[in-house]
Amino acid sequence: MALEINYIELDEMFAGQVVEVHITGKLEKADYEYFVPEIERLIGKHGKINILFFLTEFEGWSAGALWEEIKFDLKHLKDLKKIAMVGDRRWEEEALALLCRPFTSAEVKFFPVEEVNIARQWLIPGQMVQHSSGD
Predict the structure, then answer these.
(1) Residue 74: exposed, middle, or buried by beta-carbon count in 10 A (0-12, 13-18, 19+)?
(2) How far apart are CA 18 and CA 50, in angstroms?
(3) Helix then strand then coil, % of the chain, to nearest 5
(4) What are 94-127's pLDDT values in tens digits?
């Protein structure tokens, strides 16, 4: 199953600093042809941004997608402030390993699905929100 991005929503309430991406299925290399230009457009328009990846019915990454992710992270090392990943705990270790230094200077946290609202609050510029897992 190819990636289905339900939407990329720019939250204008926070001066375009928060982008929410819903992902279902398996992330493939070709999916970056849609995702990367959209995120780069938002970075160009608003500067540093925060991203929430909501992994629903997520099936993981292909090898090609992993390579595209690393290239994106290296290119945009300083363009992302915070990255929140929300999904099933089975993806936490892999997701955090992929998005940890040296690939990004962004602060990265994983939240279980039931904490999606806490993840959103954490991404709001100036907020310091803690969640129950102790991160």
Answers:
(1) exposed
(2) 5
(3) 40, 35, 25
(4) 766 666 555 678 888 999 999 999 999 999 877 6
pLDDT tens digit sequence for 1-51? 444 554 344 444 466 678 888 888 888 888 888 888 888 988 898 889 998
Question: DSSP characters for 13-61?
Answer: GGTT-EEEEEEEEEE-GGGHHHHHHHHHHHHHHHSSEEEEEEEEEEEEE
Rounded to whole angstroms, the maximal C-alpha distance in the chain is 38
- Residue ranges and CATH numbers for the domains of the chain are 4-123 (3.40.50.10600)
